[in-house]
Design a protein that fits this description.
Blueprint (H helix, E strand, L loop, with lengths): L11 E10 L6 E9 L12 E5 L13 H8 L4 E5 L11 H16 L11 E5 L1 H11 L21 E5 L5 H11 L2 H11 L2 H6 L2 H6 L8 E7 L8 H12 L4 E6 L12 H17 L9
Parallel strand pairs: 3-4, 3-5, 5-6, 6-7, 7-8
Antiparallel strand pairs: 1-2, 2-4
C-alpha cells in the first residue's frame, strides 16, 4: 500500500550505492538514495519512487546537482534515487540514454530494499538530463536505449515525468546557441551528438513529430521564463505537440527565473517543488501495464 500525502514531513536517510558497471569498460557509477524514514504507525506502507537525472550540457554535472529538490521531495514521503552516468565527450550519444534506461529498470528492481513500490516510478530530469530522460519516457523499450542487460522483470517505463529547464529539442537548442554565440552550448551539443543529423535523431520533439513514441505518461514541465540556455519556444512547442499526440502535459512558466532555478533555494524553487509534489500526488496511482 502506498500512502503519499504531499504535505507530510519525514526525516530522511542518505545512502550511497553502486548501481551500474559498464560491461565493455568496467566503468562504475553510483546512485545516491534519499529515503524517508517510516513513522512508527507506517510499518506496512510503501513509498512512491522517483529517479533524478542530472544535467550538465551532456558533458558535466553530477547526481548531487538536484540535491535541494531531492531532499525536499524525500522529506514529503518520496523515495528518491539520483544517479551518475557516462558523459561526453568520452561517451557520446546514446551512452547517457542507455545508462538512464538501465537506471530506471534498476530502481524498480532495487527500491523494495528501501521501502519503495516499483509500480509508482516517476522521474525528474534537469536541463540536458531532461532530454536524456524524455527519450526514455517516450521510448522505454527502444532496443538501442535498453542496451544494458539487467536480470529483472521490469522495463524502463514511468508513471509520470517531470522536466525542469529541460532540453526537449536538441537540434533547435543547437541552432539557438549558434545564433546567440553561446560557445559552451555549441561545444556541448557537438561533443555529445557530433553532428546535426544525430541531434535530430535523438530528439524528443522530433520523436513526437515522427510518431515514434510508444508511451505518453503524464508530464510536468517547469521552466524559467528568463532561461537563456533553453528558449521558451522549446517547452511551449513540446507541450503543444505532446498534447496533440494524446498525452497529458502541464507547462508551468516562472517569470524572471533563469536556467535550472528550481535546484536552488529560492522562493520560486519552493513553489516549483510544491507543484511537483502535487503533481506526484495526483499521478501516484496511475499504474500502467507497461510498468512490468
Amino acid at each position: 500500500m502506498v500512502n503519499y500525502q504531499c504535505d507530510a514531513i519525514y526525516d530522511i536517510k542518505k545512502t550511497e550505492v553502486e548501481y551500474l558497471v559498464i560491461p565493455e569498460t568496467g566503468q562504475k557509477y553510483q546512485a545516491t538514495i534519499y529515503s524517508p524514514i517510516p513513522k512508527r504507525d507506517e510499518t506496512s506502507s510503501l513509498f512512491p519512487i522517483l529517479l533524478d537525472v542530472h544535467g550538465g550540457a551532456w558533458q558535466g554535472g553530477s547526481r548531487f546537482d538536484g540535491e535541494y529538490m531531492d531532499k525536499s521531495l524525500a522529506a514529503s514521503g518520496i523515495l528518491v534515487a539520483a544517479v551518475d552516468f557516462r558523459i561526453a565527450p568520452e561517451d557520446p550519444y546514446p551512452a547517457q540514454v542507455q545508462d538512464v534506461n538501465y537506471a530506471l529498470r534498476w530502481w524498480k528492481s532495487a527500491c523494495g530494499n528501501y521501502g519503495g513500490d516499483p509500480t509508482t516510478l516517476g522521474a525528474l530530469g534537469l536541463s540536458s538530463g531532461g532530454h536524456t530522460l524524455m527519450l526514455n519516457v517516450l521510448k522505454p523499450n527502444d532496443p538501442i536505449y535498453s542496451h544494458h542487460s539487467l536480470d529483472s522483470e521490469y522495463d524502463a517505463s514511468v508513471v509520470y515525468s517531470v522536466g525542469s529547464s529541460a532540453v526537449l529539442d536538441s537540434h533547435a537548442r543547437y541552432l539557438y546557441a549558434k545564433k546567440i554565440g553561446r560557445t559552451n552550448l555549441i561545444e556541448g551539443s557537438l561533443g555529445y551528438f557530433h553532428d546535426e543529423e544525430t541531434m535530430r535523431e535523438g530528439n524528443p520533439q522530433l520523436v513526437l513529430e515522427r510518431g515514434e513514441h510508444e508511451s505518453l505518461p503524464s508530464t510536468l514541465l517547469i521552466h524559467g521564463a528568463a532561461d537563456a540556455a533553453v528558449p521558451n519556444a522549446i517547452p511551449e512547442k513540446y507541450a503543444l505537440t505532446y498534447s496533440d499526440a494524446g498525452g497529458n502535459i502541464e507547462l508551468r512558466m516562472f517569470e524572471g527565473m533563469h536556467h535550472n532555478f528550481a535546484r536552488e533555494p529560492l522562493p520560486e524553487s519552493h513553489q516549483a517543488i510544491e507543484m511537483i509534489k502535487n503533481f506526484i500526488y495526483i499521478n501516484r496511482f496511475s499504474i500502467r501495464s507497461q510498468s512490468h
